[in-house]
Amino acid sequence: GLITAADICKAKTDITELMEGARGRKVQIALNVASKGGDLEHAISFTKWAYRVRNTVHLITIGDGIIASAGLVVFLAGSERRLDEDALIYLHETSSDGGPQKRTERDALSAYLDMLDDRYYKIVTRATRISRDEIEDYEKEMTTFSARKAVRLGIAHHVLVSEPPVKQKKTDGKISIPEHLVDAIESATITENRRNRDVRIRPQNLS
């Protein structure tokens, strides 16, 4: 959903309580981010605050779904940033929810958006390998990045890839043994000790 001032205040409060509970030890916190935008000003304030407490908090942000605008700013607050393999980063120009305004109000709004843009660009350029000119170009084109492209641009550090299920091979219809163990058993040499009639399995070199 959209990020609100209440969301930011709660996140700061929760993280502060965990910091106080750690009694001086550095604490690791994971924060899930799945937002297309919201209150950009409060998102910027959260990220700047997160930068200030990095000596006591290792913040891991985990991105999922579409992450844009205020959502991207909060995601960039992480000391370590991870993206789900299907996540998308979306860059677009900042905007306001205001309706029709008088000329002086439009001028004031324009100045406010310029200020937000400047703070937004500083956060993105500081945390990634994207220049301000590149960001502006991406925004004009309303560019969307895959998780892997986001890692290459420095937006994220890791892509979270789902592990494929382990292949299994049935032996007698009742028991399933992992395939690599079946292969090992099948490649072993069975020898019989004539004295005690024990059957032993001597694995061969499987490398």
Key phrases:
207 residues; alpha/beta; three-stranded mixed sheet; 7 helices; globular; disordered C terminus
Structure in a nutshell:
Helices cover 41% and strands 22% of the residues.
Portion of residues in beta strands equals: 15-25%
Number of helices: 7
**How are helices and strands ordered from N to C?**
HEHEEHEEHHEHEEEHEE
Separation of the first and last Cα atoms: 51 Å
Instruction: Identify the overall geometry.
Output: globular
Report the uncertain regions: 184-207
Helix-strand category: alpha/beta
Describe this structure in words.
This protein is α/β, with parallel strands linked by helices and 207 residues long. Helices cover 41% and strands 22% of the residues. The chain has seven helices and eleven strands. The chain has helices spanning 5-21, 40-52, 70-75, 103-127, 132-140, 147-152, 179-186; strands at residues 27-33, 57-63, 66-68, 80-84, 88-90, 144-146, 158-160, 168-170, 176-178, 189-192, 199-202. A four-stranded parallel sheet has the order 1-2-4-7. It has a three-stranded mixed sheet with strand order 3-5-6. Strands 8-9 form a two-stranded antiparallel ribbon. Strand 1, helix 2 (40-52) and strand 2 (57-63) form a beta-alpha-beta unit. Helix 1 (5-21) packs parallel to helix 2 and helix 2 packs parallel to helix 4. The two termini are 51 Å apart. The model is unreliable at 184-207 (pLDDT under 50).
